[in-house]
Amino acid sequence: MKLNIAIVGLGFGAEFIPIYQRHPNATMYAICQRNVEKLNAIGDAYGIDKRYSSFDELLDDPAVDAVHINSPIPNHAEQSLKALRAGKHVACTVPMATTVEDCMEIVRVTNETGKKYMMMETVVYSREFLFVKELYEKGELGKVQFLKASHQQDMDGWPDYWPGLPPMHYATHCVGPVAGLLKLEAEYVSCFGSGTIREELAKIHNSPFAVESAHIKFKDSDLSAYVYRSLFDVARQYRESFEVYGSKKSVEWPLIEDEMPVIHTAKKPEPEIPELVVVPDYAHYLPKEIAGFTTKGVYDADDQQHLSFTQGGGHGGSHPHMVHEFISAIVEDRDPFPNAVQSANWTSVGIVAHESALKGGQLLPIPDFRAI
């Protein structure tokens, strides 16, 4: 079975083109970009004939089976809903939406249409997450007791909708792994804001906080998780971290990029408890045609070097894993991971957490998206 895929948004989105071109169950059918010059440059470079500068015209094409949306954050919900209603399967980069109401509507329309929706959360397909997941599934962690994650980034100078963004409004990179490891559902959250960003940034979204840190309680579980985010006026190298504490073993993320994570093993002599580990790659999970995209490499470098599309090396090698999951879910007629309900839960944690921070840490519930 071959699915006709259309990619919407060709900045970050262009990185996925060669992966879909090589996936055994996909045809890289069409691309969509408002900027016609950029649309044609990328279409020419990758040999894609079907090109749309209008999203609505793309959706009118009956040959399109699925769309992969990589447009700016404010467009995610509107475009996902339009595509689902047009009878297309949807993969969308994070976050799912910017309001809880839009998350609810996407879940409702996904249920109504029977189409697949997958939020393309990179962290739960990174080699680091897959490594921890493998340890958990083998029983090596023992009973999981606590989960923790962070996403810190200096976003000064970023364009459009980024300046002054509330930290927790872009929280899925740290919420996804703490919820996703054991497939837990966030039930309620308490979040504190800390510090203040520059006034010219704070007034854009009426969001003063330099850091937002949240505790998440999971439904039907004895577990909670701690996540924290910063975007402006905090000195920190870029870091997406994910840490798990178990009764037998715990895994801690490196403090500095390109260093090694640490595994702590219980009941050893104190100096022997910590051990630096090399995280393996998980290309063997993938069809051979796209396995190479988990590590760095420029596609067809001689002809297309000027495009500088480095494949898969970023985001922990997750890109081909996400593509494979999305395609496989459609072919096998099953829910992808994360599906619409999980995506809504993870996205809403951040939205509700920011609301909690504005209310001084008030405990607030996450809607039950399964009930929709």
From TrEMBL:
Coiled coil: none annotated. SUPFAM superfamilies: Glyceraldehyde-3-phosphate dehydrogenase-like, C-terminal domain, NAD(P)-binding Rossmann-fold domains. One of its GO terms (molecular function) is nucleotide binding. It comes from the Bacteria. This is Gfo/Idh/MocA family oxidoreductase. Residues 3-119 form the Gfo/Idh/MocA-like oxidoreductase N-terminal domain.
